[in-house]
Design brief:
By secondary structure, this protein is mainly alpha-helical. It has 21 helices and no strands. The longest helix has about 35 residues.
């Protein structure tokens, strides 16, 4: 090949990590983090911004509650399942093509939702957005653990987490304002500017390479379609089974939950069979030979359940139980969101110096304390006290997330980091989706029990039912606390 041909080939091919590091110097890893942060923010916007427009969409398309809830559920289910595909995509196509392709799919979904003529088009657009979000969200943890040195990983995770938390905190307010001014379609279009920015940054800074320096599209790079089908069907059965628990008859719910258990068992057996026959499984079962990772998965499941469950319960408690307006409820939650965003970078710096299992344990203890304090929330409780209770829990969340990913995945072999990130993200999202249903089921049950009691004031009965739900979340956090103490790395690895 002549010199001119070689230069032309170099210009048309995507740069590698080494080339980009040479081009941008020591700050390249931070530019890379900024790029994936933009894409992650873009993927989080539709998870919260569209929810405020659901009443307007329901009126436009004449939807009942059972169909309207799929605007949210469709996104969450698609996002949860798609997280399992990220490691295969990264090994088959590399960071750049996977990331850019997911951002394009995200924007196509947003534009399709914005011009949708009927409800099936809206639902299809939400599924497309969910798939794209599920592919994007495990990538940052892979990049942080590969691109940053161990003493920088906590700081990088903390700064990244701050941006990720601010996005879903601000998106509902912006989505509500756009809905009032321009209609529900504008909540889909608001994603496009952030998507274009993340695409430009991705083309500029994300390398054309696979995690751990593996060859892109190497031998055995075939997607485990059967495993994906089993995991997807099991997830749908689980979430639909929990949704059916709200109905008057529970037979369908128990059948769906039993089917979910059977499909999960089949999925695990199939993954083990692929592993034994030297074929690439959807989830590498070697992950579960690493004790800190297993404990991290338990914490992630409970963390997702408690976080999403409390996000569902708190606004309901303030409005139904305490009689506050929607705007007052939002105002009480806003300081906690800002404190959470500020907590992330501080905890990230601590994670570079302190054992991560201690930080996760502190976070779970604060989260449990926040839920336990809600037992003292009454109609006479001052607003600043309620805000303080919520802030304690959000500080706890700030301690958990950056430390959890590092504590669970640092002990993994470099070749397993992509698998570990997608697996723990999948478990956290599945716990979150189940947590919303669990909180709703328990609340409905306890409201019915207290309503049947003679001589009990209706408002007092509602508050008691909410208190019992917060008691359940407290118990879950204490259960996760026991697992968090086992997040420490093996002694030989810690010494190294």
């Amino acid at each position: 090949m002549s010199g001119g041909q070689h230069k032309a080939a170099t210009r048309t091919s995507a740069p590698s990590t080494t080339e980009l590091r040479e081009r941008y110097g020591q700050n390249y890893r931070w530019l890379l983090l900024l790029s994936v942060l933009a894409g992650t923010i873009a993927s989080l916007i539709p998870s919260t911004s569209v929810n405020v427009a659901i009443p307007a969409m329901s009126a436009h398309f004449t939807l009942g509650q059972e169909r309207a809830q799929w605007i949210t559920s469709g996104f969450m289910v698609a996002s949860t399942i798609a997280m399992l595909v990220t490691p295969w995509l990264l090994s088959r196509f590399g960071y750049r093509h996977t990331y850019i392709g997911a951002v394009v799919l995200l924007m196509v979904g947003a534009l399709a939702g914005g011009v949708a003529l009927n409800f099936p088009m809206v639902l299809a657009s939400r599924v497309a957005e969910g798939v794209a979000a599920g592919i994007i969200q495990p990538i940052p943890a892979v990049i942080i653990l590969n691109a940053f040195k161990p003493h920088e990983q906590g700081r990088a995770g903390g700064l990244f987490g701050m941006g990720v938390v601010l996005a879903p905190a601000l998106a509902p307010a912006l989505g509500g304002a756009l809905t009032d001014l321009f209609g529900w379609r504008s909540t889909f279009f608001m994603l496009v500017p952030v998507g274009l920015l993340s695409m430009w940054l991705g083309l500029k800074f994300i390398p054309h390479s696979a995690p751990g320096g593996a060859q892109i599209g190497g031998r055995g790079a075939r997607l485990d379609w059967l495993g994906l089908t089993l995991a997807g069907a099991g997830t749908l059965c689980l979430l639909n089974g929990m949704a059916e628990m709200h109905g008057t008859t529970r037979t369908t719910a128990f059948l769906l939950l039993a089917a979910a258990a059977v499909l999960l068992g089949c999925f695990i057996l199939w993954q083990r069979w692929l592993q034994r026959h030297d074929r690439r499984p959807l989830v590498d079962m070697r992950l579960f030979h690493v004790r800190p990772f297993v404990m991290g998965c338990i914490v992630a499941a409970v963390y997702g359940t408690a976080m999403f469950g409390s996000t569902y319960l708190l606004p309901l408690f303030m409005q139904m139980g305490l009689g506050l307006s929607a705007s007052m409820s939002g105002n009480l939650l806003l300081p906690a969101g800002l404190v959470l965003a500020a907590t992330f970078p501080l905890v990230g710096r601590l994670a570079d110096k302190q054992p991560t299992h201690w930080l996760v344990s502190i976070g779970l203890a604060l989260l449990a304390l926040s839920f336990a304090l809600m037992f003292w929330a009454r109609l006479s409780t001052p607003m600043w006290v309620l805000a303080a209770f919520i802030i304690i829990g959000r500080v706890g969340l700030g301690f958990i997330l950056p430390s959890l990913n590092l504590g669970a995945m640092r002990p993994l072999d470099k070749t397993l980091i992509a698998q570990g990130s997608s697996t723990i993200s999948f478990i956290r999202m599945l716990g979150g989706a189940a947590g919303v249903s669990l909180a709703g089921i328990v609340l409905e049950w306890r409201l019915a029990v207290h309503a049947a009691e003679a001589g009990v004031d209706a408002k007092a009965a509602q508050i008691s039912a909410f208190h019992e739900c917060f008691g359940l979340l407290t118990a879950l956090c204490l259960l996760a606390l026991a697992a968090a103490t086992q997040l420490r790395a093996p002694k030989a690895q810690a010494d190294a």
